[in-house]
Amino acid sequence: MSGGRPPDIELPMRIVLRRPPAGVRFALQHGAAGANGNSALVGALDADGHGDLVFEFTVRARFGDDGSIRFLGPFTQGPPNARFVYITVGTRAGQLDSCWDRRAKVPLAGISAAMARATQAAQAAVLEATVEGTLPDGSPTCATRPFVEAWHLS
Predict the structure, then answer these.
(1) Ramachandran quadrant class, 108 (left: phi over 0; alpha: psi -120 to 50; beta: rest)
(2) What's the domain range around 122?
(3) Which of 111, 114, 128, 132 is the most exposed place for a label (fewest CB within 10 A)?
(4) pLDDT in tens, 60-91
């Protein structure tokens, strides 16, 4: 701990992908994509078209002297002030015979330092958000979509 900054904390997180289309694989991107566009994957799941898919992971939270929060670790992507998590889709999720090659961004915006501290204080608590798994045209989710349910303590 330098300069009186509080130590980083580990935050358990959960993304619920609501009713993604059947036959499509989804996974969390772990680390940055390499020169070939590939990255390590965690938690690959194949959708059955009926239920939700659930991805659980942990990020580190670092608190600034000004009350800000910065998310760190291999699941976080993007600039420090606009971090997000990628859910990979189809071929990017390791489903080589898929016609889909997508990623969905799940922003970490909206998670405050107070929420992070409340998660740390509550035993077995998780920060959870729900995103739609299927676009209006029936294809698997991609890009940045509005939350079905924003980040909250669960």
Answers:
(1) alpha
(2) 9-153
(3) 114
(4) 999 988 888 999 999 999 999 899 999 999 99
